[in-house]
Write a structure and sequence with these properties.
Layout lengths: L4 H15 L8 H8 L3 H13 L3 E4 L5 E4 L8 H8 L26 H17 L4 H4 L3 H14 L8
Antiparallel strand pairs: 1-2
């Protein structure tokens, strides 16, 4: 399992916008320069985030990108779902059948159980972390994740 470049860079762009104190918002060239990404890539990511309802844009000379709602109302799990999807989706099995029309393991699949359990554990953590939490430093976020892990049943602790 890997975090895609789109998820990583999309989150970085969103964090950059969330950390900005510029009232008019940040422009694509601003974010491109600050994050070391191409303007085309930033434009693509911002479009996804805008369509997802996390940011809004203002056109014109004094325009830019700003958060569409307060940072404490932007759930990281929802952002990552818009940027790239989920680790496991029940429809995954429909598109990974090998050379058969239906997966050979459709009735009894230990893999499906594993992916579902991992997705459930990830969902628990990501549904409890907001952009406001992520705007803190690494130590603050690590402490938050540790606190979340402490509140989970023993079989759902996430690394």
């Amino acid at each position: 399992m890997k975090i895609s470049a789109q998820e990583e860079y999309g989150m970085r762009c969103l964090l950059r916008i969330g950390n900005s104190d510029i009232p008019e918002g940040l422009t694509i060239p601003d974010i491109s320069r600050l994050e070391g990404l191409s303007a085309a890539n930033v434009a693509k990511l911002l479009r996804i985030l805008r369509l997802g309802g996390f940011i809004e844009s203002e056109r014109g000379r004094s325009g830019g990108y700003k958060l569409a709602k307060p940072a404490d109302q932007i759930v990281i799990g929802e952002v990552l779902a818009v940027l790239g999807g989920r680790i496991y989706n029940p429809k995954f099995c429909d598109s990974h059948t090998g050379m058969s029309a239906v997966c050979n393991h459709i009735i009894d699949c230990s893999m499906r159980s594993l992916w579902r359990a991992i997705q459930d554990a990830v969902d628990v953590v990501l549904s409890r972390i907001t952009l406001k939490d992520m705007l803190g430093n690494e130590k603050v976020v690590a402490e938050l994740v540790a606190t979340l892990n402490a509140s989970l049943p023993e079989n759902q602790v996430v690394g």
